[in-house]
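Example 228, ligand adenosine-5'-triphosphate.
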Amino acid sequence: MTKRWFITGTDTDVGKTTAGCALLQAARWAGYRTAGYKPVASGSEMTPQGIRNRDALALQRSSSVALRYEQVNPLAFLEPTSPHIVSALERRPVNFDTLSAGLRALEERADWIQVEGAGGWFTPLSASATFADWVVRERLPVILVVGIKPGCINHALLTAQAVQTSGLTLAGWIANNVQPPGRYHTGYLATLVSRLPAPLLGEIPHLPDAGAEQNAGRWLSLAALNGH
Ligand SMILES: Nc1ncnc2c1ncn2[C@@H]1O[C@H](COP(=O)(O)OP(=O)(O)OP(=O)(O)O)[C@@H](O)[C@H]1O
Ligand SMILES: C[C@H](N)[C@H](N)CCCCCC(=O)O
Ligand SMILES: [Mg+2]
């Protein structure tokens, strides 16, 4: 039975890709055939091979099964803005069936699939739909990456409530130290642990060179995800 997860975050730039790659690593160490999926990416570069997004390339590298770029990222936009804006500008609509077809293809190859969203939970994909609508359609359990910094408690609790209101499971959360731990770090962690309605899968320290491969999987435990 394939395990599938949707990785959301308290905001854009909070470490969904960094923490997601770490989780893929932990899952690989646990013996899973892993695949990362970034169905919609905004903020990409044109290369001789075609349009490429950094998150998708990182997820491709972190997947244990060999995947073509287009299998990891079927829809890429150049502009680093909300997908619904650039999609309308380029007249390239985000089609839910395409996103689901990409996921079905990965399910044939992997038994652990992590889907990374774009930005936070309610990022729009069109004039009327959000990324969350597609996650509901796919019934994916959600893992929340909390970028530990002032404001993250509110963003984490709002996201957890929105996930639960949508009828989905918040399966776990990851504390990611996007900033060097501040004076009130312990209080922040304790507050999140006591108020978030899901288990903490681990805490990723502030990494001096987060771009490099860091073996950050060692900071995470999959044990709390077992029942899902
Ligand atoms: N634990 C960490 N320590 C230091 N830097 C980090 C850490 N986690 C993430 N970063 C840095 O923060 C930035 C944002 O991280 P990342 O790209 O993983 O965020 P994201 O939530 O996936 O962003 P997006 O919304 O664009 O997908 C990157 O430059 C990354 O290297
Ligand atoms: C460009 C950025 N890094 C992400 N790819 C997309 C962020 C979408 C944010 C939508 C919003 O404003 O909430
Ligand atoms: Mg990312």
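Summary: The beta strands are 3-9, 34-37, 40-42, 45-47, 50-52, 75-77, 112-116, 142-147, 170-176, 200-204.
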